[in-house]
Every structure is written in structure tokens, then in C-alpha cells.
Design brief:
Elements lengths: L3 E5 L2 E8 L3 H9 L1 H7 L5 E8 L6 E8 L4 E12 L3 E6 L13 E10 L2 E9 L4 H25 L4
Antiparallel strand pairs: 1-2, 2-8, 3-4, 4-5, 5-6, 6-7, 7-8
Helix pairs in contact: 1-2
């Protein structure tokens, strides 16, 4: 089963059930080495992650894209409930060739369903249709890569 994406006025919600236990899925989102293995859109060549897993800590990733572009995003963790939820907030920023991005909030909720885990990501603060479409493509690709990574690495249980 793939991801379910719901576009909202100020962003999107994406939900997917992974064939992996909640601790493993939470760790895939919060361990820098694990995040670096699956994060990013389809055009991402390499990801470097830095995560200070505490309220007030930094959640940062640097994506190296095809064509040489680099995307450096960082947020501050504003809520943490291991292994059920974490929230980080990204201040507004500008990127060459793109309209200015407003401040954003990313909420990730994890729910155990037997030996599987439902992940519900809510990304708020995106109102421009063009950007929302790109964010949708990026998160959809990342969720696919995470699913493949969990299945391939034997991390599913």
C-alpha cells in the first residue's frame, strides 16, 4: 500500500503504513545516519543529516541534488514524545530560483498497528500551489525510499 496524500489550504498531510515496528520507524526518522539513507526527493543524490534529538535541538539536513544544487534546511524541534511524535519548525528562507519560503511546521506522528507503524506527517505553512506540488512530490518520494530502505535493510521488525 502506498502513501495517502491530502492537500490542505496551508500544506499537506501524508499518511502511510510501514511494515516495521514503531521504534524502528521512529529511529529511521531521528537517527542522522538512517535519515541520510532515505531522505529527499527523487533528484537527491546525497543527504547529510544533523539531529539533536531534544526539544530545542536542531533537525537539519543538507540535500545534494542532481545538477549540483544544494538544499540546506534546518528546523528546531518544538515537541518530542519518543516514539510517538516529534515536531520541528523551519523558519522562512530564500533559495536561488525559488520564491521566498514562509515559516513551516512539520509534525510527524507514529502509531503502532500490531507489528506495523502508521506515519502521519503534516506539513504546514505552504500556501503557494507551485511549492505545495513540489513538496508533495518530495515527501511522496521520501516515503517510498523509506519504505524500500526498511524492507531492504531488514529493519522491518
Amino acid at each position: 500500500m502506498g502513501s495517502k496524500v491530502e492537500l490542505r489550504e496551508d500544506g499537506l498531510t501524508i499518511t502511510r503504513v510501514f511494515d516495521a515496528g514503531i521504534e524502528r520507524v521512529f529511529q529511521a526518522w531521528t537517527d542522522p545516519d538512517k535519515v541520510s539513507a532515505w531522505w529527499g526527493c527523487a533528484q537527491t543524490k546525497k543527504v547529510t543529516s544533523f539531529i539533536d534529538l531534544r526539544v530545542g535541538g536542531e533537525y537539519r539536513y543538507v540535500m545534494e541534488m542532481e545538477g549540483g544544487m544544494e538544499f540546506d534546511a534546518k528546523g528546531i524541534i518544538s515537541e518530542l514524545n519518543i516514539p510517538k511524535r516529534f515536531v520541528y519548525e523551519v523558519p522562512g528562507f530564500e533559495m536561488e530560483g525559488m520564491p521566498p519560503m514562509p515559516a513551516q511546521k512539520i509534525e510527524v506522528d507514529f502509531k503502532a498497528i500490531g507489528d506495523k507503524t502508521e506515519v502521519k506527517l503534516t506539513h504546514s505553512g505552504i500556501v503557494m500551489a507551485q511549492i505545495k506540488g513540489e513538496v508533495k512530490k518530495g515527501w511522496s518520494a521520501a516515503f517510498e525510499k523509506l519504505n524500500d530502505r526498511l524492507a531492504r535493510s531488514g529493519e522491518s521488525r
